[in-house]
Amino acid sequence: MTATLVDLKQMGAAAKSAARKLAASDSSVRNAALEAIADGLVANEDRILAANQKDIAESRAVGLDEHVIDRMVLNHDRVVAMADACREIAALPDPIGNVLEERTMQNGLDIKRVSVPIGVIGVIFESRPNVTIDITALCLKSGNGAILRGGKEALGANLVLAEIARDAITSVGLPTDCVQFISTTDRSIVNEMLQLDRYIDLIIPRGGAELVRFVGETAKMPAITGGVGVCHTYVDEAADVDKAVKIVTNAKTQRPTVCNAMDTVLVHSSIAGDFLPALARAKGMSDVELRVDGRALDLLGQIAEGARVVPARDDDFGTEFLSLIASVKVVDSMDEAMDHMTEFGSAHSEAIVTEDARTAERFLNEVDAAAVFRNASTYFNDGGQFGLGAEVAVSTSKLHARGPMGLREITTYKWVVRGDGQVRT
Amino acid sequence: MTATLVDLKQMGAAAKSAARKLAASDSSVRNAALEAIADGLVANEDRILAANQKDIAESRAVGLDEHVIDRMVLNHDRVVAMADACREIAALPDPIGNVLEERTMQNGLDIKRVSVPIGVIGVIFESRPNVTIDITALCLKSGNGAILRGGKEALGANLVLAEIARDAITSVGLPTDCVQFISTTDRSIVNEMLQLDRYIDLIIPRGGAELVRFVGETAKMPAITGGVGVCHTYVDEAADVDKAVKIVTNAKTQRPTVCNAMDTVLVHSSIAGDFLPALARAKGMSDVELRVDGRALDLLGQIAEGARVVPARDDDFGTEFLSLIASVKVVDSMDEAMDHMTEFGSAHSEAIVTEDARTAERFLNEVDAAAVFRNASTYFNDGGQFGLGAEVAVSTSKLHARGPMGLREITTYKWVVRGDGQVRT
Fold first, then answer.
1. Chain B: residue whose CA lies nearest to A414
2. ipTM of the predicted structure?
3. B311 has which bridge partners?
């Protein structure tokens, strides 16, 4: 049941117990559950869309931001896409039970390292209702229980989606409670979730910087934090200016509300005079506000058309804008650019544009981030783009998983040792 | 400098900066540092042993437990062993810079997942001074900075060892501060360490259950907790009694003070009448106190010789004894045994003794622990025994590393993407 009066502990205990059965289930049964969810989504499209439209109407009535509402919208194509995602995940190889490493020791012990589910994964997310299905599908496939907490604005659709998922799980004979959705909208529930280390093995906050920081610091269980990207692109003195303009424009404007969107351009002083005016005049940049440091302002002061140019304040560096704003700083060396990234970045996605291979290799080697790019847009930091398939989150943690988290990243392993009476002396 | 007046933040900042240089260093230089440490240990044996003898004398004077003092003792052989460990680690393959995964996408992007150091690793440990050298060597080899905090009883020897390591690091041109030892003995320093998430990327507590729990709950940075093992051996109805006696005796008595020592025997009721008396009479068990449940007591009540038998109290289950004590419980099924492990175990090392392959496979599949064993002693859960070489700790965390943590387990990865101007549409 997706209870409205939440007894979180009871929910946790039920998820833990169900997850143990799920972990021991055959992959064909887990895949059948995913197919059943896909069928359920298609069969219940009208209910899903009706609930979604109600959510949207209520959100508009309370004056929610249009860009948040934009992310909530479901339609026929999006329901089909959710169903397709379930079927695609079903078709992937089983991520658990794989022998990752194997050896026979001199004493005859057979030692295998085998992939296993993590247990119960808690995910806290925001407005997009499709996340409910994506995470349910990835957790089911990988034998993990899931406790989901979505944004309150999308609650109506989320409850319908969770019910469809749970009905499908039940229909194939798996324990219904391996997926549970928290239906209370009381914010204090998040704090309570973070105490439940007995039942939740991993917590993943997907949301704003404040939520991510709070969860990282507060959770008693391990947390993989993601979704916050303060991303830089360094335009080197040996950059191809046309490429640099194209890459920066793409990284900033293609989807400004996502975590891999670029926030800050660092440009080498010897090329800034060519690059910055070209950037400011680029067609795709016309809606972007450039918050520029003093040296960039000198170079851009005369640009009347194209991008809007304003002087940067200190806090424009190190900020994730999530909108059509970019900060710009002129630097005198790659070292200065890398130091800036270390100080202001979130180790998410950092790029260099340069034709100089040695410079590029030094950058790729020395910059410490989940993903580093040469001559490509930071917007590529994504499970699908990296060939991993659907993702749970993009991790900026350094432990366990870094960057896009697909199926493998929500598994762990155990050592399985088979002997014949061996003892250690 | 191994400051006596610790400015932890300054130490952290220095370690972070040094670790960045270390990460970019050539593996030959890191290996040279390890060889130099080995040379330094051999050359300074007299100083090391003098400091150690002073530590021991002072510990005796304040009445420290003899088994703690026993763990502190250094001698010629142990100094040679530390030096050998450094040379062995130097000879291992470089754990960083390895391409773990690689693909070229249709758009031409070259995507590689590459192993990299974690950054700065904080380790809190207890009485054994050799840990200072082992962890220094593993961190250096893997390009990680290290901030070490050892037991106050072994401080004198630890400071000498840290100085030898730092001199060696300096001698090969690496930044001295990539290894730092906290010399203040004030306990509050641990709490301060746990706040330093800006400088310490991973904290590893090696010590008692209380320390491990405190660090896991308090640390702002990710923690990998280890070193606490409440380990069970389930003697199945289809067990070979001789093997079971041998395995249980080894797991309990070979080295009772370590985390992989067995704490509790669960025995199937249909074999308990054969097994328990044989265990109690086994030669190696004569010094072991068996704390047994009511059914076991009925079976063992007549045993006058051999092991001491006393009735178990509730808290004898779920306790890590770290001494020659074992609790014993009779169960009626493997499911009951597995449920007991879930409830009372610490997911460290769990074993089954059985000749029935299907039963064994179910156990190995369903029990969720860092290492699961069939017909072998839990005492095998160790990096060396698993063929991993030296270990930093034995992790009971589920994320990132599980079981013995060798070099690979103190690395992470980053995604390195090489393009030619690609943008994402």
1. B370
2. 0.92
3. B292
